[in-house]
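The pair is set out directly below:
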Amino acid sequence: MIHGIDPKVDCVFKRILGNEENKNLLIHFLNAVLEPELRIRDVSIMDPYNEREFIGDKGSIVDVKAADEKGRKYQIEIQLSIHATLTSRMLYTWSSIYHSQIKAGKNYSELKPVISVWIVDGNLFPDTEACHTPFEIYDRSHNIILSDHLKIHVLQLPKWKQEKSAGSEMDRWIYLFREGQNIDTDNLPEILNTKEMRKVMNILQGFSENQKDYLLYQSSLEAMYERNTWVRDAEESRKREKQAEKKAALEEKRRKQAEKEKRQAEKEKKQVEKEKKQIEKEKKQVEKEKKLLEEKLRQMEALLQGKMTDISDDGVK
């Protein structure tokens, strides 16, 4: 291989899984990841690979959409940038496909399951070491599945560990998307030495050796870098806004706390002043009562003195 080709780049990814000529690879990929009870035998690709959609298009987000022989819908997408709204986007794109199946007034029985597979080149769920995380609508407390129409499978590429791999078909695909850019097609590792993986290697080699395809790859790669840079910048801007909002909220909380403490201090001051006035009032009352007592005492002493004088006068007589 002359150039290292990354299979995660849009145009390469879609030629591998979204090309009618390589439909067997899409079928193999879906069976490998989903492991359905009844294997998928055939699919129809809704938006087949077209190289013109990648030429000069800096803003497209490419996914693969297909339907199988039972009418079930599939969406496969590569995501290289992790951002806060990614899980919301997963639900939104799933719902868009599900909603598009019927028009207003149609019977809901016409709805078929929609299964999304997201290949994520990042750590979307830090709380788990699992590489493959399948999601569905499930009540864990009562062990009840609401519906089998919603399933979203997430493959976190950085969490795949080859030494723990059992060499399943899904492992091959994960290894391909993780390491494809660095693989020597003339000396394939054992995990990729299968019919399907060799066909993928031929696709990568075609992008490497065909000048037109390589220029298309370079254009798509640049668009991907620009898009991911924009996403990272937007995410950083969002984080800064969140931090500013958090700081402002903290300052507002401190201001309100300071105002509360000030009001409490003023209230306590007024209470102290009130108690001080009450003490002064009681003091005055005590002093008043003291004077009254003293006056009564003087009156009693005077009265007693008068009586003593009368007694003395009677004795003289």
